[in-house]
Each structure stands twice: as C-alpha cells, then as structure tokens.
Write a structure and sequence with these properties.
Elements: H1 12-22, E1 28-32, E2 35-39, E3 45-49
Antiparallel strand pairs: 1-2, 2-3
Protein name: FIST C-domain domain-containing protein
Length: 56
C-alpha cells in the first residue's frame, strides 16, 4: 500500500479533487512513468495513463 505520494508538477487542487472524489477511501497516489495509480483503500486502485489523447 502506498501512503501519500506526490506527482511531479501536481497541483494541490488536483490532490484535493482526488480526495473529494474518493472521499474517506482516499489513501494516496503515486506515479511510475506515465502511469498514475490512485490508492483508494484496501480493495481499489484507480490507474490512469497520462499522455496524448490521440495516437501519433
């Protein structure tokens, strides 16, 4: 389990939005390359891939 975490260049507004969306289940988030994982508790991890929306 990852507690806390900080995305490079991540604004506090984004972190507050994630906390608001996940509610009390929010644990933290971490980044590995373009992949961002949001840990929302013991059973759920939301994963996002950052990058261009269209293939090049």
């Amino acid at each position: 389990m990852v507690l806390g975490g900080n995305l490079p260049g991540c604004s506090k507004e984004l972190e507050q939005a994630m906390k608001a969306a996940c509610g009390e289940e929010y644990v933290g988030f971490f980044q590995l390359g373009p992949v961002v994982s949001i840990n929302t508790g013991p059973r759920a991890i939301v994963t996002m891939v950052l990058g261009p929306t269209r293939p090049r």
